[in-house]
Write a structure and sequence with these properties.
about 475 residues, binds zinc ion, TIM Barrel, binds dihydropyrimidine-2,4(1H,3H)-dione
Length: about 475
């Protein structure tokens, strides 16, 4: 029998990358893409991709997996259930959080999360380190060591008890990232303003989940985003602003980038496809849709789309934050708990790409190349993962075959995570990730999960071009 030249060839599809679309075959060997084009020889396995779009696997650079929240509540998902859901939705790489609680050594926190992921993850993964306490050698020893070991992404909060950091600590972390190579991501909302709003609402008896968006006004986001832009500019150190929700936020990012500030920013599907009005439900009926920052209004959605179109926002991530609608999750403090006692977040790993594909490819807003760029190529590039987000020789064979014609209406509980509800139930999308490859292995075959827990690999991050500091910190600053 003739020797086959490759392990696999995907034939007859339309290959879509951030650069363009073309009819081409893709050859895979040892888990990597080795050729893209015509006449690539033979392979042990041949996949017919006619009528399909052949796209890089999604990279979800903001998701919470098997994470203990600041309030001590465990996510509903393990690495197994979360990466299962991600893969079923076409996402082959996740960047979730290793969350430090005050007093903990960062090196131990990261090692613990890495062990959980090594055991359960079906897909490849990396971590952002949530830093909340710089004492016990964390700033001087642990953080520099972790950065140099390829844990090059740090997440800070300006809100939330226990994890919130003050301005001085934020500047210390930016300076550490500048010295050792890394990117600082920030959840930016003004803590005092939110507390003030929460106190007044609770005192007035306005405690149902519909008051959650009221308690996180856009002013809180505007203040903190502006402050973080100024810090990035002052230190010359890049900052990724997480989950921009409103028109003013998009404008702050645009203006900061226009004046040369090293700012990156993302938004999430729930800001593009939901509004705060949807939470106007009795009691705690809207608990499953509560998130921070909250959904805003239709003009905000339009502004976010324009910001994506113009490149002001570079990434669309899910902010998957899974809590069940029961006493293990949203209702840990009872079904009638006041909204400040209800965990924020909703599942999104599996719906992110189908929602964005439907809007960008099927409905034609911005187009397929930018869909790939915003959901896969850009996050891989920004976080220093050169093997991901591309269909090109040398890249990992993380590939999704999209059926552009398949129509799906989301159901009440049709996702493959462990959250038990779909916040997009009732919404119809056109286009579905049919078959998914991770490093050349078919992990989802026509909607059937084949990948095994523990096969996922931890991805070390390189220092990306986006992490490079600007050479212009204040001259008078001692280094
Ligand atoms: N907000 C966060 O800050 N984190 C998780 C989910 C959410 O809604
Ligand atoms: Zn956040
Ligand atoms: Zn988050």
């Amino acid at each position: 029998m003739a020797m086959q030249s490759h392990d696999m060839i995907i034939r007859g599809g339309t290959v879509v990358t951030a650069e363009g679309s073309e009819r081409a075959d893709v050859a895979i060997h040892d888990g990597k893409i080795v050729a893209v084009g015509e006449g690539l020889g033979s392979a042990v396995t041949e996949i017919d991709a006619s009528g399909r779009l052949v796209m890089p696997g999604g990279v979800d650079s903001h998701c919470h997996i098997e994470q203990l929240s600041g309030a001590g509540l465990m996510n509903a998902d393990t690495f197994e259930t979360a990466t299962r859901s991600a893969l079923m939705g076409g996402t082959t790489t996740t960047i979730s959080f290793a969350a430090q609680h005050p007093g903990q050594k960062l090196s131990k926190v990261v090692a613990d999360y890495q062990a959980l992921a090594a055991k359960g993850a079906i897909g490849d993964h990396a971590f952002h380190i949530i830093v909340s306490d710089l004492s016990v050698g964390n700033l001087t020893e642990d953080l520099p060591a972790l950065l140099s070991q390829g844990h090059r992404s740090i997440k800070l909060f300006t809100v939330y008890d226990k994890v919130r950091m003050g301005d001085e600590d934020i500047l210390d972390v930016l300076w550490c990232a500048r010295a050792h190579g890394g990117l600082v991501n920030i959840h930016s909302e003004n803590d005092g303003l939110i507390r003030w709003m929460v106190r007044r609402l609770v005192e007035a008896g306005q405690t149902g989940s519909r008051f959650h968006p009221v308690s996180h006004p856009r002013a809180a986001e505007i203040e903190a985003l502006n402050r973080m832009c100024i810090f990035a500019e002052f230190t010359g150190q890049p900052v990724m602003l997480f989950h921009i929700s409103c028109a003013e936020g998009a404008e702050i990012v645009r203006a900061a980038r226009a004046r040369g500030a090293p700012i990156l920013a993302e938004t999430c599907p729930h800001y593009l496809f939901m509004t705060a009005d949807q939470l106007n439900l009795p009691g705690n009926d809207a608990a499953g849709l509560m998130c921070s920052p909250p959904q805003r209004a239709v003009p905000d959605q339009e502004a976010l789309w324009q910001a994506l179109e113009q490149g002001d926002l570079q990434v669309v991530s899910s902010d998957h934050a899974p809590y069940r609608l029961d006493e293990t999750g949203k209702f840990a403090h009872g079904v009638d708990a006041p909204f400040p006692k209800i965990a924020n977040g909703m599942p999104g790993l599996e719906t992110r790409l189908p929602l964005m594909f439907d809007a960008m490819v099927s409905k034609g807003r911005i187009g397929p190349e930018r869909f790939v760029e915003l959901t896969s190529t850009n996050p891989a590039e920004i976080y220093g993962l050169p093997g991901k987000g591309r269909i090109a020789p040398g890249a990992d064979a993380d590939i999704v075959l999209w059926d552009p014609d398949k129509i799906i209406t989301f159901g009440a509980d049709d996702l493959h995570d462990n959250t038990g509800y779909n916040p997009y139930a009732g919404r119809t999308v056109t286009g579905w990730p049919e078959t998914v490859l991770s490093r050349g292995e078919i992990v989802v075959d026509h909607g059937k999960l084949l990948g095994q827990p523990g096969r996922g690999r931890r991805l070390p991050m390189e220092v990306s071009a986006h992490m490079q500091p600007r050479p212009n910190p204040p001259a008078e600053l001692p280094s």
